[in-house]
Amino acid sequence: MWTLAWRNIWRNKRRTTITAASVMFAVFFCILMRGFQIGAWNDLIDSVLRSYTGYVQIHAQGFWENRTLDYLIPENDPKIKAIADLKAPIKQLIPRFESFALASNTQKIKGVIVTGITPEVEKNFTRLHEKIVSGSYLEKNEKAVLVSQRLAKFLNLAPGDSLVLMSQGYQGASAAGLFKIKGIVKLPSPEFDNQMIFMPLETAQEFYSAPGLITSWIVDLKSADDMKKVTHTLSGYLPEQQYEVMSWHEMLVELYQQYISDEGGSVIMMIILYLIVGFGIFGTAMMMLTERRYELGVMMAVGMQRLRVSMLLSLELMFICLLGLIAGLLISIPVISYYHYHPITFSGQMAEAYKAFGMEPVLSIAWRTDYIFNQLINVTIIATIVLIYPIYSVFRLNLTQALKR
């Protein structure tokens, strides 16, 4: 029966080609649409996370909930330093010191987030030096700061001006200082761009009277896909009573909820596409059944059971769908590969809109096997469901009418 079914599909090459092509284009468009959806979100999330928080952070237990200097961790903790021996997919650990302060230019005052960074290390992670719109980048240990663009505009600040910072230091010590503004940086997130001040890590530790202490370690991953694995590994390795390991899902809840919400919209769009695909395959299957009505009638008239006829028809449709799936996959892979390594570059107003959020004006497609095979499985399920009606039609076929030409 398998051999007969395979031979049957090539008796009418035109019909087979049309049906297989409908499946092929269904697979192609489903994979491309899903790939661009995932790629667009990956670009956005990577841009936001690499501008400040990172994908994974290590804090003292309770720090993220309370955000006070009562939850500091030693910069030279041997347990943290030994993470490199875990052979986890981690590039580097980046120390940070974050706290609240009041920033003043003698005329205006505003609450800000002060972040102590290691200038050279940040060049390879946040690429903060590339986000400078005026002035210059920080040097190690200098008593100077970088101010986010919207904050600088609010306080009427420019490179070379002085800024007064006031806060409470470690263990109740007072913290106040006058800092030279070295440069202005533009951050992708408007929330961060309204309130960020960066200074060298040692300068921040001195300002807050917390030498040798930091608030967090940012875990720089080799790949964003390793986030869950690294979070799980570090959570099991570090003492739970002392440290908390958090992914960006927990730290940036609003962004994650927006991502989930958009995923819901993407699912609706995919369902609409699947319906179009389903009706396309259904139409070609019905055409195939109608054209072969007389042939099926003859087969049953000479004694072939309806069950075997329906099985033969199912095998033929299955072979055709399989050809379409393979063809769809083969034409999808080169396109995905090309647009992954050569993203679509926007120009004009679209490019300006991307740059306004600190993002590259490009749209890339995600290169992952999971969504590719998910689309193959989904189209296979649709094709299988579509098979039900032709099989049902065979069982209801009126033999007398079928034999009339």
Model description:
The protein has helices at about 1-10, 15-50, 65, 80, 120-125, 150-155, 190-195, 200-205, 225-235, 250, 255-290, 295-300, 305-340, 350-355, 370-395, 400; strands at about 55-60, 75, 90-105, 110-115, 130-135, 145-150, 160-170, 175-185, 195-200, 215, 215-220, 245, 345, 360-365. The chain is an alpha+beta fold. The chain has 2 domains: about 1-50 and about 255-400, no CATH class; about 55-250, no CATH class. A 6-stranded mixed beta barrel has the order 3-4-9-6-8-7. Strands 2-10 form a two-stranded antiparallel sheet. Strand 3 (about 90-105) and strand 4 (about 110-115) form a beta hairpin. Helix 1 (about 1-10) crosses helix 13, helix 11 runs parallel beside helix 15 (about 370-395) and helix 13 packs antiparallel against helix 15. It is elongated, with a radius of gyration of 31 Å. The relative contact order is 0.18.
Record keyword descriptors for this entry.
14 strands; 16 helices; 54% helix; elongated; alpha+beta; 2 domains; 405 residues; six-stranded mixed beta barrel; two-stranded antiparallel sheet
Largest sheet, spatial ordering of strands = 3-4-9-6-8-7
Shape: elongated
Largest sheet: 6 strands, mixed, barrel
**Radius of gyration over C-alpha positions, nearest whole angstrom:** 31 Å
Q: Tell me the series of helices and strands, N- to C-terminal.
A: HHEHEHEEHEEHEEHEHEEHEHHHHEHEHH
> Kindly state the mean pLDDT as a whole number?
86
Structural class: alpha+beta
User: What is the share of helical residues?
Assistant: 40-55%
Number of helices: 16
